[in-house]
């Protein structure tokens, strides 16, 4: 009977305890991220954000983790290089975010609004995109930014400065 209980307890603990890789810490990028600006053209006007660009795998993985605030006019632009269907999540992210999924031409394909801090739920547009712009949660609604609006930046080949 003791053996049966020990096996049952071991099996139960194995089910409850995740593998050590599930909680592996992602390291912050060692070098500062490139800084730039993006302009979003919406029905309510033009909105400019000062951004950091995440275009290396470690930068993309780390994103805005462990930050306790973000200026209202700031954000992070994830540049995937070639379009891909991203699987974003909010692990170790302390502030709610709006995620703007952007096509190769700079068109906003989808907006995930007010993503929940710390959530491991996968957020994806269901289609390949060139990039994602993360801004403060609720900011897209506040500014009237909607799918179909245009994000202007050099990575989309539509920067006004070009």
UniProtKB/TrEMBL annotation:
Q: Where is the signal peptide?
A: 1-24
Ordered alphabetically, the record's keywords are:
Signal
**Alphabetized Pfam families for the sequence:** DUF192
The protein's matches in InterPro entries, at most eight in alphabetical order, are given as: DUF192, Saro_0823-like_sf
Protein name per the record: DUF192 domain-containing protein
